[in-house]
Amino acid sequence: MSADDLILSDRPAPGIVRLTLNRPDKRNALDLTLRRHLAARFAALRDEDGLRCVILRGAGGDFSAGADVADMARIDAIEMYHRHTERLWGAVADCPVPVIAAVEGHALGGGLELAMHADIIVVDPASRLGQPEVRVGIMPGAGGTQRLMRAVGKFRAMLMCLTAEIVTGDEALAMGLASRVAPPGEVQAAALEIARTIAAMPPLAVAQIKEVMLAGADVPLSTALALERKAVQLLFASRDKTEGMTAFLEKRAPRYEGR
Q: Which domain, by its residues, includes 179?
């Protein structure tokens, strides 16, 4: 399959790109080829003018069932090292605009890790999420132990990773692993609604919010607050700040330019 076949791309609204993992016959299992194509798509979007939000989803009713076990079973430690998959995942995490994971069906193993590289996760109530790698003699290797623990806390993450527990979308929301549960069958519409809302916001403010929240998550509070203050001060120099406040006072819709 070509990159265009493995990763479908469309633009459902201005400023919004939707990327679809397209291996439905494999429940969108993440083999190396798919990961490379996905990283290339995200890298190509980094400097795109006018991009405001990315939606990531899977074709065929599943987000992703995880790593392709047939592919993983045949490689050894040295080949695993040389793949440097952390660089491929990094292309998703480093996207400068918000990324929304629209999760239907299964998001297991690497599939859940991929979703956790996003900034917002929307799930179906019946979605199935988990890190079951221990069942096949390995462990999460793309941030699953670390991102999951930061999202849901040590004790819940330990239980999930050590027992291969699978949780539903409703359970994921309750434990802090999802941003929103959409009504059954409405995950894609809900993700697009959130993306449209973000796309209508001032781009510089959105970018600074994402950057400061991610950079401040793992540093001392005093450092994180300093990052926040500097970002606020920077935004006070923007034309969007002037436009937003003027529009508010004039009781009209703002026209943001990202300047």
A: 3-199
One domain for residues 38 and 94 = yes
Same domain, 31 and 149: yes
Q: Is 133 part of the annotated catalytic residue set?
A: yes
Alpha carbon separation from 182 to 13, 23, 161, 193 (Å, rounded)? 20, 24, 26, 11
Are 209 and 181 found together in one domain?
A: no
Residues 133, 165, 171, 250: which is the catalytic one? Answer: 133
With beta carbons less than 8 A apart as the criterion, state whether 30 and 110 touch. Answer: yes
Give the span between the Cα atoms of 239 and 157, in whole angstroms: 43
Kindly report the pTM of this predicted structure. 0.94
* The three-state (H, E, C) secondary structure of 114-137, written as one string: HHHCCCEEEECCCCEEECCHHHHC
**86 and 47 co-located in one domain:** yes
Please give the chain's pLDDT, 259 residues, in tens.
Answer: 566 789 999 999 999 999 999 999 999 999 999 999 999 999 999 989 899 999 999 999 999 998 877 787 888 888 888 788 888 888 999 999 999 999 999 999 999 999 999 999 999 999 999 999 999 998 898 889 999 999 999 999 999 999 999 999 999 999 999 999 999 999 999 999 999 999 999 999 999 999 999 999 999 999 999 999 999 999 999 999 999 999 999 999 999 988 8
The CATH number linked to 75 is 3.90.226.10
In this structure, are 109 and 158 located in the same domain?
Answer: yes
Catalytic residue, chosen from 48, 86, 104, 113, is 113
- Indicate whether 257 belongs to any domain: no
DSSP state of 67: B
Is residue 141 helix, strand or coil?
coil
